[in-house]
Amino acid sequence: MQQGVGTFVVSKNAEESLESQMNKAELEEVQEVRSLLDSKIAAKAALNRTEKDLATIKNYLNLRNQFAEENKASECYEADINFHLAIAEACGNKLLKENL
Q1: CB 96 within 8 A of CB 88
Q2: What whole-number distance in Å separates Cα of residue 87 and Cα of residue 93?
Q3: 3-class SS at 17?
Q4: pLDDT, tens digit (0-9, with 9 covering 90-100), for 16-53
Q5: Cα 28 to the chain's mean position, in Å?
Q6: In this prediction, what percent of the chain has a pLDDT beyond 70?
Q7: Distance CA 75, CA 67 (A)
Q8: Alpha helices, H only, the chain
Q9: Residue 80's pLDDT band (cuts 50, 70, 90)
Q10: Separation between Cα atoms, residue 66 and residue 60, nearest integer Å
Q11: CA-CA distance, 35 to 31, in Å (whole number)?
Q12: What spatial distance separates the first Cα and last Cα of the chain, rounded to whole Å?
């Protein structure tokens, strides 16, 4: 509380980074947050994507599938990250792209 200014609520975790909080979270909680975000990101990307965005997304999806079939875990993981980043970029939201 500050006289003449008002009352403020501060999170107990205000000084703890999001990454640190996620590392401590239960796997199910992280998966739930990712699922909720992914669906909204994909919907926005579907509305705003360009043909170039779509080609990039398809390319990373195909690479991910190819590497999965070849049991190349590291390459598959990298292609999956790039797939999600390409979808985020297709949204057209710079803040989202920079913080994924």
Answers
A1: yes
A2: 11
A3: coil
A4: 777 788 788 888 988 898 889 889 999 999 999 999 99
A5: 16
A6: 81
A7: 6
A8: 18-24, 27-48, 51-69, 73-91, 94-98
A9: very high
A10: 10
A11: 6
A12: 34
As given in the structure block, the two tokens for residue 21 are 């909080």
DSSP state of 41: H
Q: Backbone phi, then psi, for 41, in 5-degree steps?
A: -65, -45
Q: Identify the bridge partners of residue 6 per DSSP, sorted by sequence position.
A: 2
Please tell me the pTM assigned to this model: 0.70
Rounded CA separation 84/44 (Å): 13
| Type of residue found at 62 | N
Q: Which amino acid is at 29?
A: E
Whole-number average pLDDT of the chain: 85
Selection from 60, 56, 99, 53 nearest residue 77 by Cα = 60
